[in-house]
Design brief:
CATH architecture of the largest domain: Orthogonal Bundle
Helix content: 55-70%
CATH class of the largest domain: Mainly Alpha
Distance between the termini: 32 Å
Strand content: under 5%
CATH topology of the largest domain: Rna Polymerase Sigma Factor, Chain: A
Number of strands: 0
Oligomer: single chain
Structural class: mainly alpha
Order of helices and strands: HHHHHHHH
Shape: elongated
Length: about 180
């Protein structure tokens, strides 16, 4: 994750936990990003820019509990901002194109594929027995050695290897659709 995404996501999570200072900082940071976002689309100094910023901040406030902390914050924010802009343009009968790929003001980097992949891996691993899941995560994802995992778990090295092998084999069968969980 990029530093901006990490910072905004952290502030949002802290705000959801009741930290008022983090919430004020989040709204301030988001407000600045929204001003830049709307100014580029509406034109510098457009009369509606500040109204859109305020409407979006209000929407963030009222919908803050719909934010999924496992997902990127900036993608969630961009969706709200984009819909507010579309609503405004419809209401004012203005015709302005808003390219979907022009969201770099709000999103630091496109890590949605990586986030999706992590989500898929966690879902797949969730169907495995706890010990096997832990061994696979430690060796194949975290990069720990078989010996380290063996020492930490109390299982023999061969037991760790066999559990990983069987777990990966089961995942492969499930992914091919040959073995439902």
């Amino acid at each position: 994750m990029q530093p901006v995404e990490e910072r905004l996501r952290r502030l949002m999570i802290e705000a959801l936990a009741g930290d008022e200072k983090s919430y004020r900082q989040l709204l301030s940071d988001v407000g600045d990003r929204l001003r830049a976002y709307y100014s580029r689309r509406m034109g510098p100094g457009h009369a509606s820019t500040e109204d859109l910023v305020q409407e979006t901040l209000l929407a963030v406030h009222t919908r803050r509990f719909t934010y999924d902390s496992d997902r990127p914050f900036t993608a969630w924010l961009h969706a709200i901002a984009r819909y507010k802009l579309i609503d405004h343009l419809r209401a004012s009968r203005a015709h302005l194109s808003v390219p979907i790929d022009d969201m770099n003001d709000l999103i630091s980097a496109d890590d949605s594929e990586a986030t999706g992949a992590r989500h898929d891996v966690e879902k797949l691993l969730g169907d495995l027995p706890e010990q096997t899941r832990g061994f696979i995560r430690a060796v194949k994802i975290d990069g720990r050695s078989i010996a380290e995992v063996s020492a930490a778990s109390g299982a023999s090295e061969s037991a760790v290897k066999v559990a990983i092998h069987r777990g990966l084999k089961l995942l492969a069968r499930r992914m091919k659709g040959n073995d439902a969980p």
